[in-house]
Amino acid sequence: MILTKPVGVGIYSAAFKKEALSSADYADMVATMTTLNRIGMDLAKDPDVHAMTDVTGFGVLGHGLGMARGSGLRFALRSDAVPRLPRAAALVQQGFVTGASGRNWDSYGTAVALPDNFPLWQRQILTDPQTSGGLLVACEPGRAEGILGRIREAGYVSASIVGEMREGARGVEVV
Q1: pLDDT tens-place string over residues 12-70
Q2: Residue 124 CB burial class (10 angstroms; 0-12, 13-18, ≥19)
Q3: Which of 27, 51, 65, 148 sits between 20 and 30 A of 71, alpha carbons compared?
Q4: Distance (Å, rounded) from C-alpha 154 to C-alpha 163?
């Protein structure tokens, strides 16, 4: 599972509304929102790419859960591998969170297994709604590094392998 763009747009938007976002942070937010998912056209032609979804209003957890349910598998998400906008962690820890983040968790949290003592701020990053978010790409495991390289060469420099699909109950397990 590959994510093509960083998350944190909702967090940055919440900070912007409270006039707590620097001009550099604003530029980062706009840059990710205006980077189109054109790579999806190329990836859709690759027989080693099995599925894709854009990460938008339900955050990485919600859209990953949709893919897990659709495939009949369990999405093992490595939270430390999820690319983030540079100040997303700091801003969310300062309380800049959208109301949608909490509603997202309320709607699908029972299908997500978190590690013991998983910090609330990290969960809020994973439930953060995105405007023009990246693509979450399911691909053949043995081809993941090559596909990731193509994605990065196409200009998605934050792209990262964020987990894998596994046998098991349909849902998300944050590891």
Answers
A1: 999 999 999 999 999 999 999 999 999 999 999 999 999 999 999 999 999 999 999 99
A2: buried
A3: 148
A4: 21
Locus of tokens 């699909």: 165
Task: Spell 43-82 as b/e; 16+ CB within 10 A means b.
Answer: beeeeebeebbbbebbbbbbbbbbbbeeeebbbbbebeeb
Break the chain into its structural domains and give their ranges: 2-174
The DSSP symbol for 93 reads H
pTM (whole model) above 0.85: yes
CATH number, span 2-174:
3.90.650.10
